[in-house]
Amino acid sequence: MPKPYPREFREDVVRVARGRDAGVPLRKIAADFGISETCLQNWMRQDDVEAGVKPGVTKTEADELRELRKRNRLLEQENEVLRKAAAYLSQANLRLGGSSK
After folding, report:
1. Residues 60-67: contacts with CB under 8 Å, at least 24 apart
2. Exposure of 46 in the CB half-sphere (CA atoms within 13 A)
3. Which residues, at least 6 apart from 56, have a Cβ–Cβ distance to it below 8 Å?
4. Are 27 and 35 in contact (CB under 8 A)?
5. What are the DSSP calls for 2-21, one per residue?
6. What is 1-56's CATH number?
7. Is-contact 14 49, C-beta < 8 A?
């Protein structure tokens, strides 16, 4: 798993990369900050998404989606428990009702 960098660091690196002089490759900026060029490209792409420049899922949307999926799994589990309980109680009720007649 890639090591996490502080948000401020990522923002500073992206700002420097966007403000670089013509002819200075991203590879050089990335090396100066001790990260890979691919990492810098990913940060710049995510920055564009966050700014609404490019389509994609923002961090806030991704966090919300993750929480909603987690909540949905929990509700599905609760629903399954209730379904099984209803089936069990229905069977128990049939047995009790059938023996009293």
Report:
1. none
2. 16
3. 45, 46, 48, 49
4. no
5. PPP--HHHHHHHHHHHHTPP
6. 1.10.10
7. no
* 42 within 8 A of 54, measured Cβ to Cβ: no
Q: Are 40 and 24 in contact (CB under 8 A)?
A: no
Domain boundaries, the chain: 1-56, 58-101
The rounded distance, in Å, linking the Cα atoms of 80 and 72 is 12
- Give average pLDDT by consecutive 10-residue segment, the chain, 101 residues: 84 95 94 96 94 88 96 98 94 73 46
40, 29 contact by CB (below 8 A): yes
The answer, as to whether pTM is greater than 0.85, is: no
Q: In the structure encoding, which two tokens stand for residue 84, read together?
A: 């099984």
Helical segments of the chain, H only: 7-18, 26-33, 37-51, 59-99
The two tokens of residue 23 are: 């002819």
